[in-house]
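call fold(seq) -> tokens
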Amino acid sequence: MSDQPRRPRKPAKPYRRPQKDPVRVLAFEALRAVDERDAYANLVLPPLLRKAREEKDFDARDAALATELVYGTLRRQGTYDAVIAACVDRPLREVDPPVLDVLSLGAHQLLGTRIPTHAAVSASVELARVVLGDGRAKFVNAVLRKIAQHDLDGWLERVAPPYDEDPEDHLSVVHSHPRWVVSALWDSLGGGRAGIEDLLRADNERPEVTLVARPGRATATELLDEEAAVPGRWSPHAVRLTEGGEPGAIRAVAEGRAGVQDEGSQLVALALAAAPVEGRDRMWLDACAGPGGKAALLGALAAERGAVLLAAEKQPHRAGLVAKALAGNPGPYQVVAADGTRPPWRPGSFDRVLVDVPCTGLGALRRRPEARWRRRPEDLDGFAPLQRGLLRTALESVRVGGVVGYATCSPHLAETRAVVADLLKQFPGAGLLDARPLLPGVPDLGEGPDVQLWPHVHGTDAMYLALVRRNG
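ret:
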């Protein structure tokens, strides 16, 4: 038995309660809503930010960071999944979704922002302690320390297959798009590697907020008086907010005289309004009007010519949004809850018809980054009959000599040219108008007669437009 005195044990460190970071907790809550409820970040995040500003010391910088964390994580989810998968000892499907959300938020801070490495890891571990518990926080800490060993370029060299071996899979991992989306966009865009890479990069950039001054109610000049506001690129009614901001705080927007609307959507409405029609020009129809942005612009343009707009929307709650958007329109209009494939109006009633059909939304991935992970190739089969049915009814609804605008926020060929080509076969008396001259000043519109806009070329969503005249 030793006579050596025993060393006194070091006292255990007192337990430290986790520190709640309101910004990162809010970002985590937004990601959970997107995952659990199939919510869209652009609908979930604003009310969370408003509540945070009302209840906490949450300033504009906090809101900007929370927004970047949410949207940045969603946009780069595919890349971060590949990186995280290389740092864990189990398939990602076996990692609890809340844990994966914390890891993804941490990966974005490490690989996609200028937040220092130590701060990114410690803040993410602290978040894990708050929302997951101390046990799983240790797992988060271990994984993030592995991720921190390389920067984004270093990780892409490790997790992305070489371009020469598998171009589509390489682009999928590097630019964080599902492989099938990369393939579909490439088919629609055509060309070589440079163009598709530019498009995929543009999808991962935060878009500017674009406003529309509704004719007869507001002017672009009025909106340009706002701070950091610059003219739109193509639409005479567009104004871009280069530093973001809260559009609802702008008086004209709050009063409904202006709204938030991508410039591509504005160009669709303007082109239809400018298309030549034969004879009268008194009755206009928006056959898929929800949530009301294009209807509000069309209604204002119709009012300038003494025409009447009928805005139809199948879902009653969305019809209510259309009515709200059109409230105060300077000319006559009507909003109805009606199915555009089984309309209550008589055939041949309208001079101009817009049918902006439901689609996969692959043209708006800048604004709804989560859509790329939600959509599947089989979704195209679900939309196809509806898109063709709506265009068929639109062509039946327009009179001889009138014009239909077929629009969709997707560049996928199955949702654009294929739909139009099929319907033209059924309506031998219909023909395409060249839409390009109706978008004056807009470059690189292709061979026509239809038009495909692109984020990397035009700075807009990837809107598609075909103008069809009913000749008999």
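Residues 379-397 form the longest helix (19 residues).
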